[in-house]
Amino acid sequence: MSTTTDTDVRNVIIIGSGPAGLTAAIYAARANLEPLMFEGEPSSTSDQPGGQLMLTTDVENFPGFPDGIMGPDLMQNFRAQAERFGTEFITEKVTSIDFSERPFRVEVRGTEYRADSIIISTGARSIWLGLEAEERLVGHGVSSCATCDGFFFRDQHIVVVGGGDSAIEEATFLTKFAAKVTIVHRRDELRASKIMQDRAFANPKIEFLWNHTVVDLLGTEKLEGAIVRDVNTGETSTLDVTGLFVAIGHKPNTDLFSDVLDMDATGYLVTRGGSTATNIEGVFACGDVQDHTYRQAITAAGSGCMAAIDAERWLEANVHTAASATTA
Ligand code: NAP
């Protein structure tokens, strides 16, 4: 496919439209940097526009909303605020990036965009169990998003795999529809926060199957059961379920930056202490793509603000000042 090049050289391109990217967009737009944002593909379940909050229900811990707010509504508010100050949105996924020359080149389905600085806010995605049957049955009883698919499991018995906040949140949400939800966890203790645990323990529709892992799934066209193994005895048994939700953590979306940007052993981008700067001057990273510690919407938003300020200062010192010196 031939590539056409956009004529403008942008101040800043922002990749990813979760809380980090959209906050960076609000700040960059208000600094007159006229940011261009690639917000992802609407059809995707892993890196959809708006990020992971599009797959969540009540957000009760984002400051400023004493009664809570639905994740998608919160993200719509972020986006409207970024748009109000002039952010340009393109609803596509970036295909490749070339950091080897300046301005940087960002390719999106045959069109090349150029920018003096880049803010990466591509977030993280759900991890799957890695079973062959899981791939076959995704969308046919197997899911990683209760908010998206829970409605389809009315009065059914569902398994949720995992022991963190995501698993408990998904299980609690699913009890709105399901007859029963069994949380299958590989240990005998949850990793989830105490308040979430208490809610799950108090929910009469939630049962726990401790010290078990899901080792196979039954059904060819739709899920008909899950085979679980006791991690202590090795014994297997079958759970008669028609829904299975996987909630075992996340992986950062950093494939685009392999061998170019510094990453830690698990693939998270590494930023310089106290800033959002990556190992390439003019390239900044914020949100879950560089944070495996806090991973909250509010911390992502905070780091998005930092990235916009870092980019603005970097542009001022390295691009805009240089440009005005040559034209003077
Ligand atoms: P997480 O905290 O990393 O928990 C992952 C869970 O899955 C753990 O219990 C882990 O077991 C289990 N697990 C991992 N790999 C597995 C495998 N291959 N087979 C079976 N089980 C496996 O991930 P998370 O729950 O997605 O949460 C991520 C972050 O987001 C956390 O910081 C969390 O607090 C935050 N979060 C917050 C909210 C909220 O406040 N509303 C909601 C969702 C997430 P082990 O415990 O044995 O390691």
Q: Can you walk through the features of this model?
A:
The chain has 328 residues and is an alpha/beta fold. It has two domains: 4-125 and 250-327, FAD/NAD(P)-binding domain; 128-246, FAD/NAD(P)-binding domain (3-Layer(bba) Sandwich), CATH 3.50.50.60. Helix content is 26%, strand content 26%. It is built from seven helices and 19 strands. The protein has helices at 19-30, 71-84, 132-137, 146-149, 165-174, 194-202, 297-327; strands at 4-15, 36-38, 58-59, 69-70, 88-90, 96-98, 104-108, 111-120, 124-126, 142-143, 157-161, 180-184, 206-209, 212-218, 225-230, 236-239, 243-246, 250-252, 283-285. The strands form five sheets. Strands 1, 2, 5, 6, 7, 8 and 19 form a seven-stranded mixed β-sheet that branches. The protein has a five-stranded parallel β-sheet with strand order 10-17-11-12-13. β11, α5 and β12 form a beta-alpha-beta unit. α1 (19-30) packs parallel to α2 (71-84) and α1 (19-30) runs parallel beside α7. The longest helix has 31 residues, at 297-327. The chain is elongated. The mean pLDDT is 93. Bound molecules: NADP nicotinamide-adenine-dinucleotide phosphate. The site of NADP nicotinamide-adenine-dinucleotide phosphate has 19 residues, from α5.
Judged by helices, strands and strand pairing, the structural class is alpha/beta
CATH architecture of the largest domain: 3-Layer(bba) Sandwich
Oligomeric state, counting identical vs distinct chains? single chain
**Poorly predicted ranges:** none
Order of helices and strands: EHEEEHEEEEEHEHEHEHEEEEEEEH
Average of pLDDT:
93
Radius of gyration: 22 Å
| Number of structural units classed as domains | 2
CATH homologous superfamily title of the largest domain: FAD/NAD(P)-binding domain
- Strands, total number: 19
